[in-house]
Amino acid sequence: MSSIFFRTVIIFFLLSAAMKFMGKREIGELEVGELITTLLVSEVCSIPIDDPDIPLMNAVIPVLFIVSVEIIISHLKNKSQKLKRIVDGRPTFIIKNGKLEQSALRNNRISVEEFFTSLRQNGVGKIDEVQHCILEPNGKISVLKYDTELSYIIISDGEINLKNLHSLGFDENWLSKKLGKLSADKIFMMTSNDDGTIYIIRKEEKN
User: Fold this and answer.
1) Using CA atoms, how far apart are residues 138 and 156, in angstroms rounded to an integer?
2) Is 85 helix (H, G, I), strand (E, B) or coil?
């Protein structure tokens, strides 16, 4: 009994450290890769607790490996928007400019009842109040009423998001004029509204 107790304590602190390194998020905010990692880690850790004959290192080494892989992938995703879209997917419009995209509901296997439940959970009682409704990569649904400005990411950590740029009806020439002498690799974040209003944050200078 004492062996199981000490194993449980060790596994608890190991899991706590692993989750701290992965970053603090609620379960509903976990991205796909993070959720898989969490499930794998919990499964691996349960094995030596259930069976005292299994060496504790059989859990420690896999957990350290799994968490290390997740941290590396997260770092690479932050450096490459293309990789992030491949791994996590991209936001999907369910309602765009007041128009319901029925194919988006079908493709994501969301019933009409589930959709209306999500609207109510976002404080919306009538569908005609919604200008934009977006299914986020983590599975949550974001709802924006009319008269709410929606910003699109044009540049993220120096990388241009051509899909968002073109969806706004702009091109590289428009972007070049907006940036002037400022190059994209010097920008940490640039957003644009539908009307072309932009917001730019430059990268911090490294010492």
Assistant:
1) 19
2) helix
Q: Provide the b/e sequence for 175-188 (b: ≥16 CB within 10 Å).
A: beeebeeeeeeebe
Tokens 């490294």, residue located: 206
Q: What is the pLDDT of residues 51-87, one digit of tens each?
A: 777 887 877 888 888 888 878 887 787 777 777 777 7
Q: Output the pTM of the full model.
A: 0.61
Nearest to 40 by CA among 17, 20, 69, 4: 69
Q: Residue 122 — very low, low, confident or very high, per pLDDT cuts 50/70/90?
A: very high
Which of 31-45, 74-88, 162-176: highest mean pLDDT? 162-176
Contact 22, 71 (CB under 8 A): yes
Domains of the chain are 2-86 (no CATH), 92-145 (3.30.240.20), 152-202 (3.30.240.20)
DSSP character string of 180-206? TT--GGGEEEEEE-TT--EEEEEPPPP
For 51-79, give one letter per residue: b (16+ CB within 10 A) or e.
Answer: eeeeebeebbebbeebbeebeebbeebee
Residues in the chain: 207
- Residue 38's alpha-carbon distances to 2, 20, 44, 170, in angstroms, are 27, 12, 10, 40
What is the band of 142 on the pLDDT scale with cuts at 50, 70, 90? very high
